[in-house]
Design brief:
310 residues; alpha+beta; Barwin-like endoglucanases; six-stranded mixed β-barrel; five-stranded mixed β-sheet; 13% helix; globular; disordered N terminus
């Protein structure tokens, strides 16, 4: 899907992505992105009613819907100063530093590819990453326009002339991120609804976390080489609209009561802690998930998002 608004872990975290390939890698001849930009994080920015806060995220691992962007942006500079072309294995993300390498896995067909994030976007509410046209083609969703994907942070990307990225965030970059704008941030807890009975959370099984591997080929596997690997994925996934995730069940129950509709509380375990998620769904079609997301955001839940789960 063509993007409709202006673009504005680490090496060892490679999962079954590289170690458990179901078939030989597919090697494609593609153009490696031009290394002519700068490393940057960027300041918070607002699109519509939503604020986005770029930051270091070495543990980033998220599922959602990917789209792709094309001809209208060919030859334009990306958010970190590089030039965008259709054949470069690049991507746009709303909050990751620029440039970084991430692995994008198409959960519909198991195709997995490393791309270079060097741009801002997508700004359509229900999408988590925009890929270049060639990257979308290699992952098998160019014609369809969108895909259910998993995006996992790998490493900072090299800069101009092969110069390695900085080991630490430069002080001027770190200090450039101001405090969150207080005008749009609510910090008070939601009031409980008197006399409301809240059902216990529904336990769900999340997509398995990637396995941690260390090998001589690990460094190579973090670069956008155009090699597509076939990795194991769940036989079926569903779409959910997630309005929030809390360590406190009471907080999740308050949000559920405020949003109403078909919002449910599901629980999962993360790093030994129980997380309560307020969700609606499941949905089989992206269009249905988009409509549900619009309803939730219309009620003021601007951080709601579409996620992929079993």
């Amino acid at each position: 899907m063509i993007r409709t608004a202006q673009r504005l872990f680490a090496v060892t975290f490679l999962a079954a992505f590289a170690a458990a390939c179901a078939s030989s890698p597919e090697d494609n001849s593609v153009t490696v992105p031009p290394n002519a930009g700068v490393y940057k994080i960027g300041q918070p920015y607002q699109i519509g009613d939503t604020w986005y806060y770029p930051r270091e995220q070495p543990d980033y691992d998220e599922t959602g819907i990917a789209s792709w962007y094309g001809p209208a942006f060919y030859g334009h500079r990306t958010a970190n100063g590089e030039i965008y072309t259709a054949q470069d294995l690049t991507a746009a993300h709303r909050t990751l530093p620029l440039p970084v390498n991430v692995r994008v896995t198409n959960l519909d067909n198991g195709k997995s590819l490393v791309v270079r994030v060097n741009d801002r976007g997508p700004f359509a509410k229900g999408r988590i990453i925009d890929l270049s046209e060639r990257a979308a083609e290699l992952l098998g969703y160019k014609q369809k326009g969108t895909a259910r994907v998993r995006v996992t942070y790998l490493s900072r990307a090299d800069l101009d002339g092969g110069r390695p990225p900085p080991d630490e965030t430069p002080p001027e970059i770190a200090s450039a991120v101001p405090a969150a704008p207080t005008g749009r941030v609510a910090t008070t807890a939601l009031d409980a609804v008197p006399g409301t009975a809240v059902a216990p959370p529904i336990p769900v099984v999340s997509l398995p976390a990637p396995a941690i591997v260390a090998s001589a080929d690990a460094a190579v596997a973090t670069q956008p080489t155009g090699i597509v690997t076939q990795v194991p994925v769940p036989p079926a996934t569903r779409l959910y609209v997630q309005a929030g995730a809390f360590s406190s069940y009471q907080n999740a129950a308050r949000l559920q009561s405020r949003l109403g509709g078909d919002m449910q509380i599901t629980s999962s375990s993360q790093n030994g802690r129980t997380i309560y998620r307020v969700r609606s769904g499941p949905f089989d079609e992206v269009g249905d998930a988009d409509k549900a997301l619009a309803r939730v955001t219309g009620l003021g839940s601007n951080d709601a998002k579409i996620v992929v789960d079993r």
